[in-house]
């Protein structure tokens, strides 16, 4: 899952971005509204964390522009604690949730998890598929109850496929959603991750659809 952080306070931006990376997300960051708007307008994010008080273009304007252009990714806004009117304006502009400053970074992580989960139509943090179980909160995966060790890249591929398990996911889509903008985007690396994943989870769970990409095959479904 790939997340954008738009926050002009460099320390806060770094703190939130690092925590998200540690939790397994690919993270891009911007420190003003114009850069943030551009990234959100041109890159496919699974969630955005958007500060409202930003230089060049304020957060509400950024959000309104995205929504007017049909950008539907989940957006969590960061507001000042005592400004209730900001929360109302943000939600009216199309925000999905908010966190008031100062916050504990764990709260931001929990809310981002919930937004990503809901966007994937999931009610809980756990995805179960036959013998496979993935817990998004702990980023842990088990097969038949036995924990399996995945690298962060392997985990991201598996989590993304499971979130979109009713359809074929192309290599390009995986690359766009799993890596930040600075990553070397070689589509062969995806094949390598899929190959390694098939050695760790039941191989028949991940089907290669020639020329199109990959699809999760629920057990007993072919
Ligand atoms: Ca700010």
Features:
222 residues; alpha/beta; Rossmann fold; Arc Repressor Mutant, subunit A; 2 domains; 4-stranded antiparallel sheet; 22% strand; elongated; binds calcium ion
CATH class of the largest domain: Alpha Beta
Tally of contiguous helical segments: 8
CATH topology of the largest domain: Rossmann fold
Portion in helices: 40-55%
Number of domains: 2
Bound molecules: calcium ion
Proportion of beta-strand residues: 15-25%
Q: Strand order within the widest sheet?
A: 2-1-3-4-5
**Overall residue-averaged pLDDT value:** 93
CATH architectural grouping of the largest domain: 3-Layer(aba) Sandwich
The biggest beta sheet, please? 5 strands, parallel
- Global morphology: elongated
Number of strands: 11
- Which structural category fits the helices and strands? alpha/beta
Characterize the quaternary organization of these chains. single chain
- Rg value: 18 Å
Order of helices and strands: EHEHEHEHEHEEEEHHHEE
CATH superfamily of the largest domain: Response regulator
């Amino acid at each position: 899952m790939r997340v954008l952080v738009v926050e002009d306070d460099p320390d806060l931006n770094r703190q939130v971005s690092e925590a998200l990376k540690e939790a397994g997300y690919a993270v891009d960051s911007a420190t003003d509204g114009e850069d943030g708007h551009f990234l959100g307008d041109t890159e496919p994010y699974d969630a955005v964390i958007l500060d409202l008080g930003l230089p060049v273009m304020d957060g509400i304007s950024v959000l309104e522009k995205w929504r007017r252009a049909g950008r539907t990714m989940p957006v969590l806004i960061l507001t000042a604690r005592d400004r209730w009117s900001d929360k109302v304006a943000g939600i009216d502009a199309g925000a999905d949730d908010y966190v008031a400053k100062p916050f504990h970074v764990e709260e931001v992580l929990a809310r981002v998890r919930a937004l990503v989960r809901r966007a994937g139509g999931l009610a809980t943090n756990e995805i179960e598929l036959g013998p496979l179980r993935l817990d998004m909160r702990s980023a842990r995966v088990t097969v038949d109850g036995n924990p399996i060790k995945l690298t962060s890249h392997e985990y991201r591929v598996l989590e993304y496929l499971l979130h979109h398990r009713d359809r074929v996911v192309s290599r390009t889509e995986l690359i766009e959603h799993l890596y930040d903008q600075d990553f070397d985007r070689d589509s062969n690396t995806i094949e390598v991750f899929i190959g390694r994943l098939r050695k760790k989870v039941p191989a028949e769970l991940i089907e290669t659809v020639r020329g199109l990409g990959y699809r999760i095959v629920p057990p007993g479904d072919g």
